[in-house]
Amino acid sequence: MNDIIDKFNQIPLAQRVILLILTMVALGAAFWFLAYEPMQSDLKSNQSQLQELKHKKQDLARLKEKKARIQAKIASLEQELLIAREKLPESAEIPSLLQRIYNQANTAGLDIRTFEPMEHQTQSYYIEIPVKMQLVGTYDELANFFYYVGRMTRIVNVKNLDIKREKSGINENGNLVVSAQATTFQMNSAPDAGAAKKK
């Protein structure tokens, strides 16, 4: 080591300064190429990955928000579908429905003279299920009955009303005799076949 220092001291000052400068330049260049530039390249790559991850995070946040909105919409639509199926079910459920209407007419105090299911009418997307009925009772009894029918979850339309006054019975003015057609509906599970049958 001392020999190297002695030899270095024997070199003229100008050459020593140049040698030191060249050594420093060589060390600086080595540091630049071996350490600094790779670190800068890694830093740029990491920054690029960080930006990409931030974009992905933002995209995921948007998708999460969109998913929550879609799930809420699906839940709302499922609820609407349940309500729609109650109003327009896929199965006729005629016996229980007719029994409810019949029982309500009895509860209202009406005399049921006719309560007769008629032939189903198949439409494009639904099936009409009509029932011919003749009811006898007071105005209030009939009003209560029709109010109940109108409040049912299942769609029931009453049409072709024919109202006459009966000149007999306990009521001094006579009871009302109502002939009508009550129609409920069922979803047509095979609309194409139903439409073809109608044609």
Care to give the gist of this entry?
The protein has 199 residues and is α+β, with helices and mostly antiparallel strands. 60% of the residues lie in helices and 22% in strands. Helix 3 (94-107) runs antiparallel to helix 4.
What does this structure look like?
It is a single chain. The chain folds into 2 domains: about 1-65; about 95-199, 2-Layer Sandwich (Alpha-Beta Plaits), CATH 3.30.70.60. About 60% of the residues lie in helices and about 20% in strands. It contains 5 helices and 5 strands, in the order αααβββαββα. The chain has helices spanning about 1-10, 15-85, 95-105, 140-150, 190-199, and strands at about 110-115, 120, 125-135, 155-165, 175-185. Strands 1, 2, 3, 4 and 5 form a 5-stranded antiparallel sheet that branches. A hairpin with a 3-residue loop joins β2 and β3 (about 125-135). α3 (about 95-105) packs antiparallel against α4. Residues about 195-199 have low confidence and may be disordered.
